[in-house]
Design a protein that fits this description.
380 residues, 2 domains, alpha/beta, three-stranded antiparallel sheet, D-Maltodextrin-Binding Protein, domain 2
Length: 380
C-alpha cells in the first residue's frame, strides 16, 4: 500500500511541477538532457527522419535525442513494468515512446504514463482536431499521448503489370486462385500482418459490432470462423504455399520490386512515393485502398511516468508536432508519414497527403486474440 501511495504522490508531484512551470522554464530545464526514445527501428526512412530530428533538437534546444530501436514496443512495456515493480519511480531508462493500440492501453492501465500533458504543448494549437486524436483503438487518450501521424492500411501494385488490382478481400482470394504464389502478407504478430488480419475480419463479418468491444473468448471462434476459412484457402495458393511469410512491410515492398509478388502492403499511403524516391520501387507503382476503405489509426508519442528527462521529452514531442517537423516528416522523399496538423500549417509535399476513406480499428483486445489464434494455427 505504501508503494502505491508513493507512486501516486510522485506522479502528482511531477504533474504539479509541469503545471506550475511556464513553457520557457520547461525549455530551460530541458537543455542538456538526453531523451532515450523507444521507437520501431525497422524502416530506413523512419530512422533517417529521427536522425534529422535529433540534429535539429541539438541545435535548437540543446537536447540529445537517442533512438532506441525496438522491433516491438511491447518489449518496452515489459521494461517499464519491471521498473515499476522494482519501485524505480525516478531516473527511468525510457524517456519517450512511440505507441498506439494495445501498447497504449497496456501502459495506461498499468499507470506507466506521465500526464495529462498534451494541452500544455504550444504546438497543440496546430493539430487538426477533426482527426480521432482523443481515442486510440477506441481507448480514450485523456491527454496521456500526443498524436504524431496518421496510418492507413493500403496496398501497392505495379500499374504496368496489374492495372486492375483486387478491391476487396473476396477479389483478392479470386486473384490468388487465378495467379497462384503471387500474393502474401507479413507474418503476424508483426504490425502489418496483424493489421491485415483485422482488415480481413472486418470485411468478412461486415464489421460485426462485437469488434468494437473487448473480445469475448466464448464467441471469438464464431466471429472469426470465416477468417480462418478464408486463410486456409488463401494459404494454399499464396506465395511459398502459405508456409513462409514476409517478416515486414519492407520485405513485401522488396518482393514486389523483385517481381516475386503482385501486391505489397503498408500502413502509410505515402510510402510508395518514399520508396520510389529511394529507388526501392519503380515510378509505375501506386498505392490504393480496398473499396470498403482503409483500416486507419493515429500513432502517438508518450512519456513514461519515471522518465529521467521529462522536460526534454515534452520539448521533443512539441518540436515533433510543429509545422517544420511535421512538414519534413510528411515530405514524400523523406518519410511521407501523413501529418496530424491542419493543412494550412504544412508546406511542400506534406500538404498534398491523400487520406482514404477510414475504417476504425477494432478494440485493442482483438489484436492479442487474433495473433494468438493465428500462431496456433499457422505459426509452426
Amino acid at each position: 500500500m505504501t508503494k502505491i501511495f508513493t507512486f501516486i504522490a510522485l506522479v502528482t508531484l511531477s504533474l504539479s511541477s509541469f503545471a506550475s512551470d511556464s513553457w520557457t522554464e520547461i525549455t530551460s530545464k530541458a537543455k542538456g538532457q538526453t531523451v532515450y526514445f523507444h521507437a520501431w527501428g525497422g524502416s530506413q526512412e523512419v530512422n533517417r527522419y529521427i536522425q534529422w530530428a535529433a540534429s535539429e533538437l541539438k541545435t535548437q534546444y540543446g537536447i540529445k535525442l537517442k533512438h532506441v530501436k525496438v522491433s516491438d514496443i511491447s518489449k518496452t512495456t515489459a521494461k517499464l513494468v519491471a521498473e515499476k515493480t522494482a519501485g524505480k519511480n525516478t531516473h527511468g531508462s525510457v524517456d519517450m515512446v512511440w505507441i498506439n493500440g494495445e501498447n497504449f492501453k497496456s501502459m495506461k492501465d498499468q499507470q506507466l504514463l506521465l500526464g495529462p500533458f498534451v494541452s500544455q504543448l504550444p504546438n497543440w494549437k496546430f493539430v487538426d482536431k477533426s482527426l480521432p486524436i482523443d481515442v486510440d483503438f477506441s481507448e480514450p487518450t485523456e491527454g496521456l499521448e500526443a498524436p504524431w501521424g496518421v496510418g492507413q492500411l493500403v496496398f501497392i501494385h505495379d500499374k504496368t503489370k496489374l492495372n486492375n488490382p483486387p478491391l476487396s478481400f473476396s477479389e483478392m482470394l479470386s486473384y490468388a486462385r487465378a495467379y497462384p504464389k503471387r500474393l502474401t502478407y507479413p507474418k503476424p504478430p508483426s504490425f502489418h500482418g496483424t493489421s491485415f488480419l483485422k482488415a480481413l475480419l472486418i470485411e468478412l463479418t461486415d464489421n460485426d459490432k462485437s469488434l468494437s468491444s473487448p473480445v469475448d473468448m466464448k464467441t471469438f471462434p464464431i466471429v472469426t470462423e470465416a477468417l480462418w476459412s478464408y486463410l486456409d484457402s488463401f494459404h494454399q495458393v499464396a506465395w511459398r504455399d502459405g508456409k513462409q511469410f514476409p517478416s515486414s512491410s519492407a520485405e513485401t515492398i522488396q518482393l514486389l520490386d523483385d517481381n516475386q509478388i503482385d501486391l505489397a502492403i503498408t500502413f502509410n499511403p505515402n510510402a510508395v512515393y518514399s520508396a520510389q524516391a529511394n529507388g526501392k520501387l519503380t515510378y509505375n507503382t501506386a498505392a490504393y485502398a480496398m473499396k470498403q476503405g482503409a483500416l486507419s489509426n493515429i500513432h502517438f508519442l508518450a512519456i513514461p511516468w519515471n522518465s529521467s528527462s521529462s522536460e526534454a521529452a515534452m520539448v521533443t514531442i512539441n518540436f515533433l508536432l510543429g509545422p517544420q517537423a511535421q512538414s519534413h516528416k510528411g515530405d514524400t522523399e523523406v518519410w511521407g508519414d501523413p501529418s496530424v496538423l491542419q493543412t494550412e500549417y504544412l508546406s511542400g509535399t506534406a500538404k498534398k497527403s491523400k487520406h482514404f476513406k477510414a475504417i476504425s480499428e477494432p478494440h485493442p483486445s482483438w489484436q492479442t486474440a487474433l495473433e494468438k489464434a493465428w500462431l496456433e494455427r499457422y505459426g509452426k
